[in-house]
Amino acid sequence: MSGPHPDVARTRLAVRTALADLAPGSLVLVACSGGADSLALAAATAFVAPRLHLRAGAVVVDHALLPASASIAARAAQQCRDLGLDPVEVRQVAVADTGGVEGAARAARRGALEAVREETGAVAVLLGHTMDDQAETVLLRLARGSGARSLVGMEPVADIIRRPLLGLRRAQLRAACRALDLEWWEDPGNAADGPLRRADGEPLPRAAVRDVVLPALTRALGADPVPALARTADQLREDVWYLEDEGWALLARSVVGTAEVPGRPGWPAAVDVAGLAAAPGPIRRRAVRYWLVEAGAPAGSLAARHVDGVDDLLLRWRGQVGVDVPGGLRVRREGERLLLERTPARPVHREAPHDEPAGDGAADAPADPA
C-alpha cells in the first residue's frame, strides 16, 4: 500500500513537529480562510492532532471586504468540519477604514483569533504562513530600513501563535491540497491587480512584492531568491535573540536606586551612565529601547532617533536638556545617572485642530490565513 503524497507527508511532519511539545488533551485552533495554505494546514492538523492525543478546531475570520465574503467563510468552515475539526468558529470583523487595509485587517483578525482562543481555552493558534510569505516579509522590512529585529521575519513560535509551514513553499501546499481533493479559494486581494488597493490606487505592498518584485528578482538573479531570503531570516534570528538577552541583562545591571517611573509601578526611573556607556553599541541601544518601551513608550512610535538621542546623553553629553520620547516621557541626565520622567501634558488648542494624514496601506506582515 502506497503512502501519502510527498507534500502531504511533508505538511503532516511540519505540523507534528510544531505540536510535539503540547500536553495531551490540549486544544489547538487552525486559522483557516479556505485558501490553499490554510486548508492544507487544517487537513494536516486534523490528521496529526489525534495521533498526538490533542484536540483540534478552527477559526474562520470573515473580513467583509468582498461581496461574497460570508459565503466564502461559510464554505471554509464546512471544509474544516468535513476534515473533522471541532469546534469550528466563524467570526465576522469590522476592518477599520483608516490607515492601510492590510494592517487594519490583520489587527481585526488577530483580535478575533485571540477572542476565540480565550473562549475555547485553546493553547495555540496555528497560522499557515509559508516560506514564500517569509521571503516577502523580509523584503518589505528591508526596503523600509527596519532594524535587525524585524528582519528575522515571522517567528515559528510567538506566544500562542505557531507557524508550522514556514519551511514549505506555496506550491507544495497546493500540491498537498490537490492530492487530498481539497478545493481551495484564491483570494483576489492577494494579487497585485486585485480589488484591494492603497489609498493612492497602487497595489497593496505585499501583493506588489509577490507578483512584481520577486519575479523580477528571479529574472535578474537567474535563481529563485525565496529560499535564500527565508534562510537569512533564520540565521539572523539566533543572533538577534542573543543580543536581546544581553540587552535585558545589561539593563538589569544598570538600574540604580529604587525610584519608579510614574504610572509604571516597579519599573526603574534611573539607570547608571557608566555601565551603559561601557557596553557595546548594539547591546546598549537595545537596553535603552527596552527601558523606554517598558516605561510606556509605544514600540511602534519609538524611532531610532529617540534611541540615538538617549545614546548621545550617555556618550556625548554636553549639558543637553534631555530627550522627549513618545508616550509622554523624557530622559535627562543628572550626573552619572539617566532619569526617566513624565513630561507635562501639552495644552490642547481647540481653535486650530490638525488632522493626521492617512497611511499608505503599508504593512510589515502578510495577511494571516484566517
Throw out a few tags for this protein.
370 residues, alpha/beta, Uridine Diphospho-n-acetylenolpyruvylglucosamine Reductase, domain 3, 2 domains, 6-stranded mixed beta sheet, 12 helices, elongated
CATH topology of the largest domain: Rossmann fold
Largest sheet entry:
6 strands, mixed
Number of domains: 2
- Give helix % range: 40-55%
Q: Are there runs of 5+ residues with pLDDT below 50, and where?
A: 346-370
EC number: 6.3.4.19
GO molecular function, one term: tRNA(Ile)-lysidine synthase activity
Family: Belongs to the tRNA(Ile)-lysidine synthase family.
Biased composition (Basic and acidic residues): 341-357
What does this structure look like?
This protein is of the alpha/beta class and about 375 residues long. The protein has two domains: about 5-185, 3-Layer(aba) Sandwich (Rossmann fold); about 240-340, Uridine Diphospho-n-acetylenolpyruvylglucosamine Reductase, domain 3 (2-Layer Sandwich). Helix content is about 45%, strand content about 10%. The protein contains twelve helices and ten strands. A six-stranded mixed beta sheet has the order 3-2-1-4-6-5, with helices on both faces. The protein has a four-stranded antiparallel beta sheet with strand order 7-10-9-8. Helix 2 (about 35-50) crosses helix 7, helix 5 packs across helix 9 and helix 11 (about 280-295) packs across helix 12 (about 305-315). The longest helix has 29 residues, at about 225-255. The model is unreliable at about 345-370 (pLDDT under 50).
Brief rundown of the structure:
46% of the residues lie in helices and 12% in strands.
